[in-house]
Write a structure and sequence with these properties.
Blueprint lengths: L2 H21 L1 H15 L7 H13 L4 H18 L7 H14 L21 E6 L6 H14 L4 E6 L4 H14 L3 E2 L7 H14 L4 E6 L6 H15 L9 E7 L4 H13 L4 E5 L9 H9 L3 E5 L7 E3 L2 H8 L3
Parallel strand pairs: 1-4, 1-5, 2-3, 2-4, 5-6, 6-7
Antiparallel strand pairs: 7-8
Helix pairs in contact: 2-3, 3-4, 4-11, 5-12, 6-7, 8-9, 9-10, 10-11
């Protein structure tokens, strides 16, 4: 890496950290307001502090089951160490949350594409799922930008054919990013679009193919059948496709996002998560709860409107930003 590349990477890293800090600002404000109330007038972490801490985590949309896990771990540390001051509480809480997220970490899947050698002979196929309105198509556009900016050849497939806006939106994103979009228009067979997109990826020696899918959740059986058909058709071109099923969730909906995630994991085998719209919400704790409860890794988080504001999720950086005062 040359000196210019080093400084460019360092600048990008600082800009991403700033975007993350700003994007989590409402969650942080809510988080520390509640934490301050939990420890006011107290010198040690006692049962009353833990009760208040439990309420704080639930209000941050961490979720009840995950909150109980965190409180249980802190209780054991307090019992073991005998004396834990309230001034240590944020450090202990930070450590426990990082460790909890560590169970579902890993650099496999689509986040490893940037380190994947070019021209491997077969593109990495990502099938993107999620209900309408969560930012699914925008997330695909931002992903395409990330990969394209890194020098990767990208193909997009507009297989959400039940919504004209979805097809048009993806075409616009393809034009903005400068990558081809395979589209048959509205009310066409989604599986046929996916087949042609994967075939195009193979023909042009693409590094990654990203397939958009319909975001309907009113009928789980139909959704399951449709996604299964898309998978089967893609496998006629690449037998092990898709290599990742990325579920996009709207973080600003809090526990509703978790309920959506549970339904989608019943309908198809989700292997990774992208949690969007964390900027402008106080519910950023949902990232912790969803990752823990679903046992599915968070790959990306959305912290702003810019194309670069879809960030690779790093558990340590996320928690550090969450606790940064």
């Amino acid at each position: 890496m040359g000196l210019f590349d080093f400084f460019k990477k360092d600048k990008e890293s600082k800009e991403q950290q700033q975007a993350l800090d700003e994007g989590l600002q409402k969650t942080k404000t809510n988080f520390f307001d509640q934490l301050s109330k939990a420890v006011v007038g107290k010198s040690t972490v006692d049962e009353a502090v833990l009760d208040d801490l439990e309420t704080m985590l639930v209000h941050a949309d961490v979720g009840i089951d995950t909150t109980v896990k965190v409180i249980d771990r802190i209780e054991k540390r307090v019992a073991r160490d005998k004396y834990v001051s309230t001034s240590e509480l944020d450090r202990i809480l930070r450590e426990e949350i990082v460790e909890l997220l560590d169970r579902n970490s890993g650099a496999t899947g689509s986040r490893a594409i940037l380190d994947r050698p070019d021209n491997t002979g077969s593109p990495f196929v990502i099938m993107v799922v999620g209900v309408n309105g969560v930012g699914k198509t925008t997330t695909i556009g931002k992903l395409a930008h990330r990969f394209h900016a890194a020098g990767k050849k990208v193909v997009l497939g507009a297989a959400d054919t039940f919504r004209a806006a979805a097809v048009d939106q993806l075409i616009i994103w393809g034009q903005r990013v400068g990558v081809p979009v395979i589209s048959h228009g509205m009310n066409t067979d989604p599986a046929a679009v996916a087949f042609d997109a994967v075939q195009k990826g193979v023909d042009m020696g693409a590094d990654v193919v990203i397939i958009d899918t319909a975001g309907r959740l009113h009928n789980k059986v139909n959704l399951m059948n449709e996604l299964s058909k898309i998978k089967r058709v893609m496998q006629k071109v690449i037998p092990d496709a898709p290599h990742e099923v990325l579920l996009v969730l709207d973080g600003s909906t809090g526990q509703n996002a978790f309920l959506q995630a549970k339904e989608f994991t019943k309908a198809t085998e989700v292997s990774a998560l992208a949690i969007t719209k964390l900027d402008g919400t106080a519910k950023g704790g949902v990232v912790i709860g969803i990752s823990d409860q679903l046992q599915v890794p968070v790959r990306y988080i959305g912290v702003g409107e810019k194309m670069t504001d879809l960030q690779l999720f790093d558990r340590t950086t996320f928690v550090h930003s969450l606790f940064k005062k």
